[in-house]
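We both want to read discrete structure tokens more fluently, so let's practise on a single case. Would you write everything just below, so we can both look at the same thing?
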Amino acid sequence: MSAHDPVTGRRVVDPSVYSVEFKPRGGSRRFLGLMLLVSMGATAYGAYLAYEERTTTTYGIAATLGALTVVFWASWASTTVAHLHVHGGVLEARRSGRTERFDLTSHYTIIRVQGSPRSSRWKVLIERPANTPFVIDRTMVDPKAFMRVLHAYHHGV
């Protein structure tokens, strides 16, 4: 049986999980940024060759490289990085300029875990009234570290 704070009614947890900021995982965004830079260089070189040679083939290659650069830019621009922070049992998730808060200590917060932290299909779904569930997966946070904090706060996980 876990202890509860007599004033707030919240669960008392180990101080090591009271305030935890999870390192954002932005590997895919960095990779897309690198691909965008390479593509921009190739496009510039292709445009230079098209200007020098003035053939239909070099124009086509330059246009194709330009289109590829636009695709990489759009992918890079639409990729978001989530920032997750738990403080006193409240999970704060910042993504795409929006901040959402979930009280992990509340019995009214419905949390479902799919898979184990070792599985590539691991995800945590937090129900939101009148909305789709908020999904946390391994692309956003280290699964083992997040589950350790979640187990400390939430009653039904």
